[in-house]
Backbone:
């Protein structure tokens, strides 16, 4: 069995329970999906039908007698729990060394190089909540023109600036300069532009975020497919996460709704290859803000959209739904959590199979290559024969 089109949708941060090594990351007890399930009125009938509650380890909700596809959970083999690491592993790269993090802020020599390159000073330089940091430093930023630089438990160098004080083009250029500086031992996973607007004290982040990731050190499923002449379509922040490597164009989105809309539009188009989508609102708007109600609502909105998407799939289409890490909205932390991720596979010829617990996200990318008849050196092992019965 070969596929004509594969849709790979990453529900950013929708983890399904702590991994055995979660204690080393401070994430014991984390379970993002369960935290959503606990919210009043939470119902995801299409995901339930797909087998999400049949997955091993889920004991708080009833599954269905016969899911309409394959299902399972996967552990992260890479070191870390950030977006870049998770997506790279899905696409075939296992990162044995974690990206650097800065719980005490960035070194002064890095900040000095950044200030010299941008011509602007720096405020904050601490791990911070993205909404709280503009509340605490936004007024001073407007008065001085200094850039708000902050980080988190993840490997990120984030730059917040008011769009009226620092135009977007300048903010993006500052990020590019930071990306050039942050190399070697300070090669963080991502530099992120975090523009905001409004008047003190009512500042709000705008949807004009932009990520500047490291270039993947090896080929990914995107490179493999592109080299074989297949279409590879990035939707959302996928292009940024891979620094464009393996992709010919970019389709950035500013919300889950837009990401789902663009993905559904590609369902109507004639292409042969992979549509790779990231839906970031789960993580950015709800997980990091400990908004369990908002997170649950967003999952229900995706579930509603999924019903129509699946009904419009054509012969030769296969749908993979997974995640890249957790971000439990009910734990004290506002950071990512080290969790298993779900995998649901749907399409004509896909069997009702419990894949159990996979040892690496990379099995997903390897399986996608297998569906297109490509032998490659990506990490992971294909489970294509298991879910097709071939």
Residues:
């Amino acid at each position: 069995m070969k596929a004509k089109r594969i849709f790979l949708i990453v529900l950013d941060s929708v983890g399904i329970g702590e991994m055995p090594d979660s204690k080393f990351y401070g994430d014991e007890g984390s379970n993002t999906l369960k935290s959503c399930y606990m919210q009043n009125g939470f119902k995801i009938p299409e995901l339930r039908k797909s087998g999400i509650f049949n997955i091993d380890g889920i004991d708080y909700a009833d599954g269905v007698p016969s899911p309409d596809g394959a299902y399972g959970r996967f552990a992260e083999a890479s070191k870390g729990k950030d977006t870049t690491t998770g997506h790279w592993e899905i696409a075939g790269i296992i990162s044995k060394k974690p990206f650097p993090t800065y719980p005490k802020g960035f070194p002064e020599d890095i900040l000095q190089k950044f200030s010299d390159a941008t011509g602007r000073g720096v405020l904050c330089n601490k791990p911070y909540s993205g909404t709280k940091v503009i509340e605490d430093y936004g007024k001073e930023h407007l008065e001085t023109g200094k850039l708000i630089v902050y980080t988190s438990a993840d490997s990120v160098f984030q730059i917040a600036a008011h769009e009226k004080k620092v135009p977007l083009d300048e903010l993006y250029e500052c990020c590019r300069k930071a990306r050039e500086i942050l190399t070697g031992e300070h090669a963080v996973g991502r530099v992120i532009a975090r523009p905001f607007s409004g008047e003190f004290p009512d500042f709000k982040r705008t949807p004009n975020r932009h990520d500047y990731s490291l270039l993947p050190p090896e080929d990914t499923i995107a490179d493999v497919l592109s080299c074989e002449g297949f279409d590879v379509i990035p939707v959302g922040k996928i292009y940024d996460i891979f620094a464009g490597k393996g992709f010919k164009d970019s389709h950035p989105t500013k919300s889950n709704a837009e990401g789902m809309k663009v993905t559904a539009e590609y369902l109507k188009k004639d292409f042969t290859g992979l549509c790779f989508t990231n839906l970031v609102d789960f993580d950015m708007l709800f997980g990091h803000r400990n908004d369990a109600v908002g997170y649950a609502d967003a999952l229900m909105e995706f579930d509603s959209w999924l019903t129509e998407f699946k009904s419009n799939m054509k012969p030769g289409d296969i749908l993979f739904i997974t995640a890249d890490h957790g971000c439990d909205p009910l734990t004290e932390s506002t950071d990512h959590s080290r969790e298993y991720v779900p995998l649901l596979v749907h399409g004509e010829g896909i069997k009702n199979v419990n894949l159990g617990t996979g040892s690496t996200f990379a099995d997903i990318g390897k399986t996608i290559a297998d569906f297109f008849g490509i032998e490659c050196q990506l990490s992971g092992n294909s489970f294509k024969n298991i879910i097709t019965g071939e």
Observations:
- Residues 108-212 form a domain with the Alpha-Beta Plaits fold (CATH 3.30.70.1250).
- The mean pLDDT is 97.
- The first strand starts at residue 5 and ends at 11.
- The radius of gyration is 20 Å.
